[in-house]
Write a structure and sequence with these properties.
Blueprint (H helix, E strand, L loop, with lengths): L5 H13 L2 H8 L3 H15 L15 H16 L16 H4 L18 E6 L2 H17 L3 E6 L5 H9 L5 E6 L9 E6 L2 E5 L3 H4 L5 H5 L3 E3 L5 H12 L9 E2 L3 H9 L4 E4 L1 H8 L4 E3 L9 E7 L7 H9 L3
Parallel strand pairs: 1-2, 1-3, 6-7, 6-8
Antiparallel strand pairs: 3-10, 4-10, 5-8, 5-9
Helix pairs in contact: 1-2, 1-3, 2-3
InterPro entries: LysR_HTH_N, LysR_subst-bd, WH-like_DNA-bd_sf, WH_DNA-bd_sf
GO molecular function, one term: DNA-binding transcription factor activity
Pfam families: HTH_1 (PF00126), LysR_substrate (PF03466)
Length: 318
Amino acid sequence: MDSPSLRQLDIFAQMVAAGGVARCADALGVGVEQVLRDLASLEMRLGYRLFEDLNGEARLTPAGRKTAQAMTLLSEDRPAPVEKPAAAPAPIPPSLLQPAAPFIPSPAVPDGPPRQVITLAAPPPVFGHFQDALAAFEAANEDIAITLDLHVHTAQDAAVALADRRADIAYFYALEEPADLKSRYGWSEPLNLYADSGHPLARADSVSRADLSMTPMLSLETRSGMRDIIDAALAKGRVRNVMPLLESDNMFEIIAALRDGAGCFAAFGTLARDLGRMSGIKRLALDIPLPAVEIRQAIAPRAAEKPAVEALAEFLFL
């Protein structure tokens, strides 16, 4: 799950441990507003809510609990920070990583059969798309537990996760069917460009590639899996792919730059949906649409060893 900034993930971990915004801010030595901004930016990037009530005793949503579980994988892989943070994030208490309804049913009785674990690998926004379906599947199959790997973004990521047995089912971003990974098409999400409503391109009835060549771009950071597919789509769509004016995983920085008229920003999926709902930000009327981003599903070759894997893969297509 390397697409959101590590700072935001650290704050999320501290929030889980602290159980409240004020306690989290005090532990990190920052203001409450900073914590709220970083959490809101993280939720916007992920495409789903992490907490039920940030004004009181913050409670994790079912999706938030799954994300906290997946963060234990991230903590094993991420590099050490260059600078020591003001306050080290508290470890997530094991009790908060335990399954919670509706995602995970009650534990099996001691003498009962062990529950079968299915690992779903997907970009975080794709997990957000499926969270209700996953809850329904687990509720109907009490002998199944679903875990997440939120590292996967590309076909290469998916192939490695499936080959290394880190995942049973993988969803990934693509612009077309990959030649070296058997997969099937799930759905497409249009890629659009956004700018401040007062920007000359936002006021134009039609925006050409020549118009875009003279406009600075704002982008996510290079380590973001979403950034990779966006750059590939822009290149395929003949939009110049040069060093952007701003690179940030903090959506509030991106939005502030957009509203200052600094340039345009490419987005798809839930991030594009949220941008399109914001006052003062407008989708550009491109004369030629950009390539859509496909979300594709791949299943591990060993799926026959777990009949429930194929059942879940089909259920997610219903």
